[in-house]
Amino acid sequence: MPTSSLAPPSDIALTLALSLISASVAPVLLLDGNLTIVAASQSFLEAFNVGLEDIPGARLADLGGGEWNVPQLRSLLMATAFGQASINAYEMDLNAGTGSRRLILNVQRLVYDDADDIRLLMSIQDITEAQVQRRQTEDLIRQKDDLIRDKAILVQEVQHRTANSLQIIASVLMQGIRKVGSDESRTHLRDAHQRIMSVAAVQRQLAGSELGDVELRGYFTDLCRSIGDSMIRDHNQLALIVKVDDSIASSGKSVSLGLIVTELVINALKHAFPNDRDGRIDVDYRAHGDGWTLTVSDDGVGMPHDPKNAKPGLGTGIIQALATQLGAVIDITDSSPGVRVSIVCRPTAASKPAV
Prior knowledge:
Blueprint: H1 12-23, E1 28-32, E2 37-40, H2 42-47, H3 71-81, E3 87-96, E4 99-110, E5 119-126, H4 128-179, H5 183-207, E6 214-215, H6 216-231, E7 238-244, E8 248-249, H7 251-271, E9 279-288, E10 291-298, H8 314-325, E11 329-334, E12 339-345
Parallel strand pairs: 7-9
Antiparallel strand pairs: 1-2, 1-5, 3-4, 4-5, 6-8, 9-10, 10-12, 11-12
């Protein structure tokens, strides 16, 4: 244990303090009332590159190259020595020749029977590395925030360009419908135009939402309102009702679900209510565990009885592909009246409720 050249103290408290310093793995100094070093732990000598021969009788301000000669620290130590202040978690920068170090100091005044025999026990914690790591972490967080902001700007630009492109394509298809003479060609172009409008409706709704997960109730409601406004002439005659639970889905899943809803609703509007027939279309979504069921039903004319009229169209292929992508199956039933189409993703065994 490095100590000053003073004779071993007889005071029991001082002897105990010296023993604690000897056993300390943290940098510790024992000072007298004049801020002269009485003892120093080996860890202090190693941490601050101080030689054992420099300790006996040395004042704190004279250690090293004078980096400990800090007026504010000296004032606090003297005030603590005379019981006028205390030093708890005091942070300071130690500017040595090897660079600046950030330290936390805790100083305790040891009480003896002799009031003139003042001793200060000072423990030191070097937080330089922790501070560097904290700054690095802050820099990483700042860089991440910048990337997120740049991504948001990029997504907005892509959405804007996508919307413009869809409008151009839809306009070109509409011009083609007017020019072609074949009824079959016009039907195909109308179907293609309807597909473009379906994608545009989904894109328009997602463009107004936050990045990341999507709250499905508001998403489906806005999506169906957009479809209804463009395709339903009399809302008193034909109603489009949306019932969705509190489910939240990823943006990728939301796109697929939105396209399915759009295809099914548009299909019902086109085929279920001929000759301005009254009716309603219901869109319902319910989650069960990690599974879910999306149902679009109508009370229209129902499924065609002639097999020739039941030939699957482009929309059916799109819905089938999207359902497969979502790991779901399609169930179509004649609900008399109307048609009920359910897209079902069954829950895994782990999420099924106990019976």
